Amino acid sequence: MKSIGIDLGTANTIIYVKGRGIVLREPSVVAVEAKSRKVVSVGSEAKLMLGKTPGSIVAMRPLKDGVIAEFDVTAQMLHHYFKKVSGNTLFSRPRVVICIPYGVTEVEKRAVEDVTLEAGAQSVALIEEPIAAAFGSGLRVDDARGSMIVDIGGGTTEVAVLSLGGIVLSNSLRIAGDELDEAITSYIKRKYNILIGETTAELLKKRIGSAHPATDHGAMEIRGRNLLNGLPAIVTVASAEIREAMMDEVLHIVESIRNTLENTPPELASDIYDTGIMLSGGGALLSGLDLLISRATGIRTVIAKSPIDSVAHGIGRVIESDSGLVSYRAR
């Protein structure tokens, strides 16, 4: 029986297999037939279809803001990934450890458990995302010394203060990578009267996006549809414009970090001042974000070694050690 860990993210799904490490990293996107809801493609192939499908096919993200929005589609996506990581061997139903955002409701927790069992798991255990991210970022979570993790994914930003293996204080913010993409789309529409797709918005963020003027870099030519005449259009956008487009959302994240620090017990706040703030998740790769947070808080801010994989590596550490951090629920 295999033990596997799943970082079930709004943007990407990453799977860790005990003894093998990370074996799968795919977008959390599924294309289905509109009428029958039959799955046409999953992952990278389905992501290429976003915004390009005929009326008979719908390409969707089955998770929204870190929680399951489409139960059946999520179950089929996970089932597809279970088969993919098994290779040609008979994949006996796995024991699964899967992450959830901090502060989700009991109904949302149960939905994650049920969908994982529905996909073919023998048993499932939940682990809170900030704890997994902290483990995977190399923070010494079990110490009495306080530490802070900021995990910025596609659907949620998790800000947590940890000590003695648990979460002392946490804020879960439903502003993250997807909202940054939406802000870019709105800005281009408002300023240039050009409509762009979410794939283009994400590319702008990754290639020339910036959170601080000191890290602005270059410009990028994009294509979209002119809203005034309906024809294809090309425009060149500068890094500073993308920073301006995302600034409200970025400042919300910074404000959440400040609020968490203000409510942190003094002894732990003192520890965090010494140890610094750790950034993980895909959002940690936004150029200049560490500098902005450091300037706003006065605390050294560092990016995890593999920010996108931090949660998966953290779950992997739990699986490899067979620690009592998680308890499994079987069907």
Provide an overview of this structure:
- It is a single chain.
- With 331 residues, the chain is of the alpha+beta class.
- It has helices spanning 44-47, 71-86, 106-118, 129-136, 177-192, 198-208, 239-262, 266-275, 289-297, 310-321, and strands at residues 3-8, 12-17, 21-27, 30-33, 39-42, 57-60, 63-64, 67-68, 95-100, 123-128, 147-152, 157-163, 166-173, 194-195, 219-226, 232-238, 277-280, 301-303, 329-330.
- The protein has a six-stranded mixed sheet, with helices on both faces. It has a five-stranded mixed sheet with strand order 13-12-11-17-18, sandwiched between helices.
- A hairpin with a 3-residue loop joins strand 2 and strand 3.
- Helix 5 (177-192) crosses helix 6 (198-208).
- The chain is flat.
- The mean pLDDT is 92.
Secondary structure: elements and pairs:
Layout: E1 3-8, E2 12-17, E3 21-27, E4 30-33, E5 39-42, H1 44-47, E6 57-60, E7 63-64, E8 67-68, H2 71-86, E9 95-100, H3 106-118, E10 123-128, H4 129-136, E11 147-152, E12 157-163, E13 166-173, H5 177-192, E14 194-195, H6 198-208, E15 219-226, E16 232-238, H7 239-262, H8 266-275, E17 277-280, H9 289-297, E18 301-303, H10 310-321, E19 329-330
Parallel strand pairs: 1-9, 9-10, 11-17, 17-18
Antiparallel strand pairs: 1-2, 2-3, 4-5, 4-6, 7-8, 10-19, 11-12, 12-13, 14-15, 15-16
